Structure formats: C-alpha cells, structure tokens
From TrEMBL:
InterPro entries: Ald_DH/histidinol_DH, Ald_DH_C, Ald_DH_N, Aldehyde_DH_dom, ALDH_GabD1-like, GABD/Sad-like. It comes from Microbacterium rhizosphaerae. Pfam families: Aldedh (PF00171). Belongs to the aldehyde dehydrogenase family. It comes from the Bacteria. SUPFAM superfamilies: ALDH-like. Residues 3-455 form the Aldehyde dehydrogenase domain. Keywords: NADP, Oxidoreductase. This is NADP-dependent succinic semialdehyde dehydrogenase.
C-alpha cells in the first residue's frame, strides 16, 4: 500500500509521501532512545505540565485535525471532531492520575518477608513501538502515547499507510508541547519494515491495534525477542436484547452502536441477538432507523454515514454479504453498493445468518448488522460466545438476575448493561480469545509498559 492520502469520498489520491529511508528510521530510533534517558529522570509534575500542553494543542487544532481525519478515512466530521476532543480529555486524564497509578506500594507487615521495608515500585522500560490502524487515527495512538510518556517511556509510531497526515501531526505533537526532542516519533514505513524496527534492541516492547493476522505476526516476532506486547485485535461484539428490555431505547442505541464511525470500529456492535418475544418489534424498529440514516459527504454536518475508508474494505464487506445471501440469509435493508463515486456501501441489516456463512464467524468491518432470534438467555449466551472473538458486549434487560448472569457468562473483555460499548480513559479496555491480550486505559494501561520492581530492605 502506498503511503498516501486517498479521499474515500472521491476515490482520488490527494497527497503521496515518500517512506522514510533506512537512515531516517535509524535517526528516529536513536533520537527516541536518547530521549528516554532524559524523560525518565523528569518528575510526574513536569510531564503532566507538558501533557496538558499537548491536550491544549489538540483543542486548538480541532477543526484542522477533524478535517484531516475525515479526508483521510471518511469519518463524518461530527465524529472526527469528537475524536479530537476525546484525545485531549484522555491526555489530561493521565496528566492528572499517572503519579497516583504508579505510586510505590509497601507491605503492611514487611517482617513477614524478613525485611524492615518491602514493597513494589513502577519503572519505565524504554522505547515502545506502536503499530496503529486508520479507523481512529488519533485516539488509537494517543490512548497509548499519553500513558506511555507519563510513565517516562518514549514512543515510536508506525501508523497505517492511508493516514499519513495524521501520523505526521502526531510526530511533532509532544515536542511542540515541551517534551524532550525525540520523545515520540512517527515512522513512515510499510508493514514489511516493522520487523526490523521491533527487533532493534533499543525497542523494548510493542503495542498493536489491528487485525488478528497482524497481531499474531507481531506477537511472534516479539516473542522471539522476549519483548512484551499489548494487542487489541478484532471483535464481533454481541448486542443482546432480552424480553424485559426497553425495546425502543435498545433499537435507537443499536443504530449508533453498529454505524458509529461508518461501522468501522472493533467495538461496534455487530451481532444483534434478540429474544423471540421482542424480536419482531426490535427488528422492525432497528431496520426503520437504519434505513433513515443520511449517507453522503462526510464533510457535511448532516451526514450520519460516509464511505468506507478503503476500496478493499468496501469490496470485502460486499463479498461477505453476497456470501450470506447466496447461502440463504435475508437482507432486511441495504445490502448493496450505491451508484455513486467513492467507497460507499448502504447501511445494512441482514437476518438468517447461520454457520457456514462468512458473516457468522468473521468480523464485518463496516455498517452491516446481523440479527439472530433466540429463545432464552442460555441460547443468547451460546450465540454470543460462539465466535473466536471476545472484545466487548452489550446486554439489554431490566431483570437484575439476568444482568448478573450475563456479566458472569459472556466471554468478553467488557460487558455493558443497557448501553453501548465505548472506551473511557477511566476504565480498562481490551479483549480475550482472538481479540487480544493486555489492557489499555485506566491504571492497567499505564502499568503495561512498566517494570514492576520488587524492593526489599533488611
């Protein structure tokens, strides 16, 4: 894939970028390694001052950044603007809480281990490589970079090749905010050159958000080098609606849960698992609301759904739906490529998806929703857990016993009750099974790339 801004609304290439040479990559790794020696010696208070300055820069540049996001990957401008502001909030969260999250801890009774004092403390580990996707081109990066730099680490970013302008903005953000030169650098390189960077002894760990195959590849390389990784991979999140649910509210939220960011979100609800008693009512409302979405120019404030980010992504979605229909599934609304420029696919609801269809097990990375009818909570959980993924989940019920039962029995990194899955700086984020390992955000996220050091004093 060329390193280029290709506008998904028009399909036209707007700007191309030369990859960094081997010499330029070496220069950036060396600078980031040198910056670690300086940054780790600074105080939390100093880092927090710089981090708040970075948050302010994001807010000052919100309109410019929102436009970059929209032009590079097609996200409707309202959502792009919200992403920038969420990033600023996330950076401020870690500026406020990093010292608390990484505070030393002491045993109440050190004599139990034969010591006068004993406990733990957190220490930064060095340069961390982030391999990031295009779908949230700022948030995915900054939810790593904020805690990593507040812990005293430095970062290298290999961003997706179709969002180079976002990558180059992030390349200078932290230095502009006051962090030591080299604290964070972007590498404009293709995926084929990631392995060499990861094997560099100056790079101590890696984090990747992206596809399952990409995660497996990076983890294999890191494992051979005995380097820690955090992986946030795909998801096929269930959205369960039980008979006691507020069906009107669930259907309204379901539309946003599936179609946010043009449906291109790992944590977007993808499989709608509905109790038979409310199946017809929910599906009718859901289809009506999906059909009413405004599809169009993502720079238009009135647009709800824009184009898919890439032509290949649009074609993959079309292929998954065609496979399901050929094997007996029924399209309730949408299900076609409209006759217009750009990489559009009509928002779609499809039912009758069954084993043997690609949509039953694969992640649909775009605005296609599958609806399943179930008889009880046991069947709902069986369908929900019946994939290799386990990122997040949502359950709609007003029965307290049912709420607790689903929280206990769903195989996922998160369960949202009577709401849609979202990521918050205050809560840990990550999955199980093929959805990844490790956690981002909250205290867990900042501790992932720290050495938890035991300290014993006689």
């Amino acid at each position: 894939m060329a390193i280029a801004t290709i506008n998904p609304f028009t399909g036209r290439t707007e700007q191309e970028f030369e990859p960094h040479t081997d010499a330029e990559v070496e220069e950036r790794i060396a600078a980031t390694h040198a910056a670690f020696a300086e940054l780790r010696r600074t105080s939390f208070a100093q880092r927090a001052e710089w981090m708040r300055a970075a948050a302010q820069l994001l807010e000052d540049d919100v309109e410019k950044l929102a436009r970059i996001i929209t032009i590079e990957m097609g996200r409707p401008i309202k959502g792009a603007r919200a992403e920038v502001l969420k990033c600023a909030k996330g950076l401020r969260f870690y500026a406020d809480h990093a010292e608390e999250f990484l505070a030393p801890e002491q045993l109440d009774d050190p004599s139990a281990v034969g010591a006068s004092q004993a406990g733990t403390r957190y220490a930064p580990i060095g340069v961390v490589l982030a391999v990031m996707p295009w779908n949230y081109p700022l948030w995915q990066v900054l939810r790593f970079a904020g805690p990593a730099l507040m812990a005293g680490n430095t970062g290298l970013l290999k961003h997706s090749s179709n969002v180079p302008q976002a990558a180059l903005y992030l390349d200078t953000l932290f230095e502009r905010a006051g962090f030591p030169a080299g604290s964070f650098h972007a590498l404009l390189i293709p995926a084929s050159r990631v392995e060499k960077v990861l094997r560099d002894p100056r790079v101590k760990a890696a984090t990747l958000t992206g596809s399952e195959p990409a995660g497996r590849s990076l983890a294999a390389i890191a494992g051979s080098e005995v380097k820690h990784v955090v992986l946030e991979l795909g998801g096929s999140d269930p959205f369960i609606v039980m008979s006691s649910a507020d069906v009107d509210r669930a259907a309204s939220v379901a539309v946003t849960a599936r179609n946010q960011n043009n449906g291109q979100s790992c944590i977007a609800a993808k499989r709608f698992i509905v109790h038979t008693d409310v199946y017809d009512a929910f599906t009718r409302l859901f289809c009506e609301k999906v059909a009413a979405l405004t599809v169009g120019d993502p720079l238009d404030e009135a647009t709800d759904v824009g184009p898919l980010a890439t032509e290949s992504g649009r074609d993959e979605l079309e292929s998954q739906v065609a496979d399901a229909v050929a094997k007996g599934a029924i399209v309730r609304t949408g299900g076609f490529v409209p006759d217009r420029d750009g990489w559009f696919y009509e928002p779609t609801v499809i039912e009758g998806v069954a084993p043997g269809m690609r949509l039953h097990l694969e992640e649909a990375f775009g605005h296609v929703a599958t609806v399943y009818r179930v008889a009880d909570r046991e069947e709902a959980a069986a369908v929900a857990n019946g994939t290799t993924f386990g990122l997040s989940s949502a359950v709609w019920t007003t029965d307290p016993d049912e709420e607790d039962w689903f929280v206990e029995n769903l195989d996922a990194g998160a369960v949202f009750v009577n709401g849609m899955t979202a990521s918050y700086p205050e809560l840990p984020f990550g999955g199980v099974k093929d959805s990844g390992v490790g956690r981002e955000l909250a205290a867990a996220g900042i501790r992932e790339f720290c050495n938890l050091k035991t300290v014993w004093k006689g």
